Amino acid sequence: MAKTHSTSVRAAAWALAALACACAHAQPAPRANFFDDPFGQVTTGMPGCPPPEGPLVTAEEARRETHWRAERGTSCFRSGRCRLPNGYRYDKEIFPRAIQFLHQDGRFENTSVWITVQRRWVIVEGCVNDAGQGAQLEAALRQIDDVESVIGQWMVGTRGKPPYAVEAQPPAHP
């Protein structure tokens, strides 16, 4: 009986060790743009600007966000602030207009910025030359038809910690 108990304890210990090892080497859940939010780089004038990760979420995060996105998307229409039945339906139209507008404006060619459009909100991430230019960039984007809000998450210059999540870099192989 003692031998059986000892074998069971050993087997359980090996199982726990294998589980601990598997957990230690577990890969993070894959992240994707599950909601197909428009995202991309608009200007490229500051080499070395840390690229943002964009609107990436895990499948679990997407599942949790689905309800509130539906609620927030339709509340715009129900309140009379939107002509379309869902605020997210504007995003694919706003994105190319924002790019076109900024390129034609010409004041921001010496920046490196990316934009994400979600529910008529334009999120600006990247690098500008000074705070005044960042404020001008935000003000310019607010002029675009159907844009409800602009959220500036830019940094001055290319050094330091950006105020946005940065694109994951692949691990270096020896």
Question: What key attributes describe this structure?
Answer:
6 strands; alpha+beta; four-stranded mixed sheet
Outline of the structure:
Helix content is 40%, strand content 17%. With 174 residues, it is α+β, with helices and mostly antiparallel strands.
Proportion of β residues? 15-25%
Describe the largest sheet: 4 strands, mixed
* Biggest sheet, spatial arrangement of strands: 2-4-5-6
What is the structural class?
alpha+beta
The whole-angstrom Rg is 23 Å
Which parts are unreliable, with pLDDT below 50 for 5 consecutive residues or more? Answer: 8-24
Q: What count of helical segments does DSSP give?
A: 4
- State the end-to-end CA separation: 50 Å
Which whole number gives the mean pLDDT? 87
Helix proportion? 40-55%
Q: Quick one: overall form?
A: flat
SSE string:
HEEEHHEEHE
How many beta-strand segments? Answer: 6
Oligomer: single chain
In words, what does this structure look like?
- The protein is an alpha+beta fold and 174 residues long.
- The protein has four helices and six strands; from the N terminus they run H-E-E-E-H-H-E-E-H-E.
- The strands form two sheets. A four-stranded mixed beta sheet has the order 2-4-5-6.
- The radius of gyration is 23 Å and the shape is flat.
- The termini are far apart.
- The model is unreliable at 8-24 (pLDDT under 50).
Give the helices and strands, then pairings.
Layout lengths: L1 H23 L6 E2 L6 E3 L15 E2 H20 L12 H15 L6 E7 L2 E8 L2 H12 L6 E8 L18
Parallel strand pairs: 5-6
Antiparallel strand pairs: 1-3, 2-4, 4-5
